[in-house]
Amino acid sequence: MVFFTVLDQVLITLTMPREIKEIKDFLLKARRKDAKSVKIKKNADNVKFKVRCSRFLYTLVITDKEKAEKLKQSLPPGLQVKEVKRSERM
């Protein structure tokens, strides 16, 4: 049986990535000053956008390929964008 202390639970929630449901929220996170890079992973049925900020990794999952392409075009120009192939690890 595994027991977690309150401190363990706080550390686990602080280190977990955050999932974003709205495209607008993702773009706001990507435009922040502490946003370092965006990784785009294309799968067979969805496209995942992952923006690395100073504290959290924010993830947005889009199932529509056309919306994903529009989002890719609307990312800030100064942000480093890396496309990750399916076989690579993130």
From TrEMBL:
<dbReference type="InterPro" id="IPR038464">
    <property type="entry name" value="Ribosomal_eL38_sf"/>
</dbReference>
<protein>
    <recommendedName>
        <fullName>Large ribosomal subunit protein eL38</fullName>
    </recommendedName>
</protein>
<dbReference type="InterPro" id="IPR002675">
    <property type="entry name" value="Ribosomal_eL38"/>
</dbReference>
<dbReference type="GO" id="GO:0005840">
    <property type="term" value="C:ribosome"/>
</dbReference>
<comment type="similarity">
    <text>Belongs to the eukaryotic ribosomal protein eL38 family.</text>
</comment>
<keyword id="KW-0687">Ribonucleoprotein</keyword>
<dbReference type="Pfam" id="PF01781">
    <property type="entry name" value="Ribosomal_L38e"/>
</dbReference>
<dbReference type="GO" id="GO:1990904">
    <property type="term" value="C:ribonucleoprotein complex"/>
</dbReference>
<keyword id="KW-0689">Ribosomal protein</keyword>
